[in-house]
Amino acid sequence: MAYVNGRIPSSALKRLPGNNAGILKPYAYSYWALHYHTVKVARVSLAIYDASVGRTYRTYARQLLAKRIYGSNAATPGTSNHGWGRAVDLQTSGQINATNRYGAPYGWQKRWSDAGWEPWHMRGVKAMASPAAPDPFKPLGPRQKLACRRLLFHRREMAREKRSGEGPRFRKQLKHARAWRKLVKHYLTGGNAQQRAVMRRVLKATDGRM
Fewer CB within 10 Å: C terminus or N terminus of the chain? Predict the structure, then answer.
């Protein structure tokens, strides 16, 4: 689909880790994959927190604002890679270093930037389908995983039944949830540090969603 620079519909954009306007989904997915990798291997988050001008996608109005603030250092409104939803302005030297070190397989690295004088400005060159999110239950053993999944399932069912007003079924789900909660708490006493951290998150997820 053809888009107009700075006028891309929100349905075509996906938010990145942090709090921002996001970028085009195929490049956002590759950015998320790189984020998962840098967190795992270097403990560096690539979370981006947006500013008034915008560190990710920029509408045409934001491009006009950037031009007023930065002058010749900003692209002509309507031509910016931010307006195409393909550019990200990183925030820390740690993010820049991690992206340059690990980003090539994901299509994020400074060598592909359109603004070589700005070390923080990155342009995505690799589209990617939606990556699977990391399995939050990966550290758990089979029995621990089963108990956690069942507890979350029955809690979600409780929430659904509560909204629909079906009282008797809600009470049945509550009975199951209490039983699985008791088992999770039992496993909590014998797990390792990683397993205990996951199970504590499960116990706190009263709505059944982690």
Answer: N
